[in-house]
Amino acid sequence: MSSPESLMRKKFPKCPICKSAKGYVPSPFYPNVTCKSCTAEFILHDNSLELKSPSKFKWDEELLNRKYPFDFWNTLKAPQIAEKIILPIDYVGGSRYHRNPVIGYLRVRPDGFTYKSSEGSVHEMEVNISPNKLLGVEVIKANDLGSVLRGKRLLINTSNQYLLLKYKDQSNRKRQLILDFHGHEENASELIGLANRFMETK
Ligand SMILES: [Zn+2]
User: By the 8 A CB rule, do 163 and 191 touch?
Assistant: First the structure.
């Protein structure tokens, strides 16, 4: 009998979500399979395919747990990245170029991220990061910030977890911002998904 991965590969040589041809690995939840590239998890039925866990890009979350016919998956395209503002996102440290905490937001557009202070913020700040300069966004626990801050302290310690945004500046020097997303997991997850999309397409 064929394995679920080989059946999936036969039906979908390219992943329906990310179009990668890297193939699939078995999921701990047999007979689900996981895309090696985007980590979307699927279960193949006789006449349909069902997404059981979203990809790292997150836009596919709305397709979860429904059986869609094969044609649907074959013609599926990622939606355009729409302009949006994600807040509250406050700057709390990590960069020696920005020595004051800032109340602000992240604006996402197809041409990249902008971190900007809100009008009510005491200190002003604006950082523009184009997709090809973005190095990653991840959630980091306050306790694990030691290696990131290299002995320095946060400007203001407001949460037990933060977003670590890494990028390169105009001179290709590595920089980082530590941002407080105030526990809004859906904001963090959306930003990480968008960052993954930017990094995939550069
Ligand atoms: Zn994939």
Answer: yes
